[in-house]
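Sanity check

After download, print the first record. It should look like this:
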Amino acid sequence: MKGKLVIFSAPSGSGKSTIVNWLMQEHPELKLYFSISCTSRTPRGTEQNGVEYFFLTPEEFKSKIANEEFLEYEEVYQDRFYGTLKAQVERQREAGQNVVFDVDVKGGVNIKRYYGDEALSIFIQPPSVEELRRRLTGRGTDTPEAIEERLAKAEYELTFAPQFDHVVVNDDLETAKQETLQLVESFLV
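Expected structure tokens:
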């Protein structure tokens, strides 16, 4: 049976990755697999081509953009691209995998627009911008300037929430996990 698509987007610090990783680790019965994206950056550490990413040169990436082979892509810095190939998603679906996308809000909206009802889109939302500030500060990984940049981006990203099928407000992690699980389970049956 052909796999389905589950899209997750959220502002940084909303708990999206925590929820997605929990779903994938604790619920193998859902047959969830990350989409394998492409990037034009070089592999880091033990990363392998075709496992974490497909590593392309900037020229190869631009050629695929010109040929409209991507569901979504973004040029993060000059010649530093990230994107999701249509053909790779279809290969994973044909193998019976339910493909999970952990993407930015624009990518999430684009993938949903492309696949329509074949995809479930979930926006993980922080309870407030103030709570997001507290979480980002508590991580201790960013400078105050970087936190302000992330918060400004988060306010913009929050405006995309209505374009998603469901919004899960993560004010309590356990509740948010269970709510997300119920949404995914009911979509996959």
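If your output differs, re-run the checksum step. Summary of this record's structure: The radius of gyration is 17 Å.
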